[in-house]
Amino acid sequence: MSVRGRRFEWGTRTFVMGIVNVTPDSFSGDGRHDTAEAIEHGVAQWHAGADILDVGGESTRPGSQQIDERTELARILPVVDGLRARLPDAVISIDTYKPLVAREARGAGADIVNCVWAAPDDVVTTAAELEMPICMMHNQRGTHYAGAVAEEVRAVLEQCALRAMRAGIAPERIMLDPGIGFGKTPDQNLEVLRSLDRVTSLGYPTLLGTSRKSTIGKLTGREPVERVFGTAATTALAIHAGIDVVRVHDVAEQLDVVRVADAIVRNWRPNGWTG
Predict the structure, then answer these.
(1) Hey, what long-range contacts does 57-63 have (CB within 8 A, 24 or more apart)?
(2) What amino acid positions are annotated as catalytic residues?
(3) 3-class DSSP state for residue 260?
(4) pLDDT of res. 24
(5) Which strand (E) or helix (H) includes residue 30?
(6) How far apart are CA 182 and CA 141, in angstroms?
(7) Distance between CA atoms of 109 and 178, rounded to whole angstroms?
(8) Which of 33, 85, 122, 241 is most deeply packed, by most CB within 10 A?
(9) What pTM value is reported for the model?
(10) Residue 31's pLDDT is what?
């Protein structure tokens, strides 16, 4: 996949998506409602080594309140515009499930749609029309599954990818996310993490977002900002399973995990490596 001249050669290394939350109520404690602060945070994430900056204006934590398009746009458009001005070559994704927000963000300089609701048809058609790659995340209301959770997640994501291709999006521009923390209990999250190869075996690029999630907190007893090492465990295991992109709050720290895991799993080496 090529975006703004940057090539994402899936399978050669793991790519890092840095989170830029422009919300007052983020679960992770890193929400930045001030535009200038959010822009500076995004710039810092990019310089720390992020391959993609993911800008979101609506919290999707459990119990969060849905906001209207006008409010979401007021939050994210100045940030996308500011990041594009400061970082002309940066790859920016917009974390939204609203077609209008995706469209307006594209006009401000966003490149990718990252949808937490498995991308409804109107979001898919908007991404296709605007020639934007799309990330489609498994989600559902409630935590009931008729069968094995990992198999149901796999089946839903496969259908999502087929819908995106029918809309005209090339398979290498369709990222699939199993949705850790969305529509799943902690034990179901662990089962999906244990079975990530069921998602990667579909053959599409894959993304995983576990950073600072509550399941890690339940296992470690730590607050969100203290879950760096717990997140690192999921990052390394995800790379072993073949995940292509990890979405994280702590770019510099997780990039170290990515580089070591990639060297072992994908035979990656840094420039100038003498061995």
Answers:
(1) 57/22, 57/23, 57/95, 57/96, 57/101, 58/23, 58/95, 58/96, 59/21, 59/23, 59/25, 59/26, 59/27, 59/31, 60/116, 60/182, 61/25, 61/26, 61/27, 62/27, 62/214
(2) 213, 247
(3) helix
(4) 79
(5) none
(6) 8
(7) 27
(8) 241
(9) 0.95
(10) 55
Side chain identity, residue 67: I
Residue 266: both structure tokens together: 């994908």
**Architecture of domain 14-208 in CATH?**
Alpha-Beta Barrel (3.20)
| The pair of three-digit structure tokens given for residue 4, joined into one six-digit string | 């703004």
Supply 250's token pair: 């702590």
| 208 φ/ψ angles, rounded to the nearest 5 degrees | -130, 130
Residue 254: the pLDDT is 98
pLDDT at 84: 98
Chain segment 131-181, per-residue pLDDT in tens: 999 999 999 999 999 999 999 999 999 999 999 999 999 999 999 999 999
| Domain chopping of the chain, boundaries | 14-208
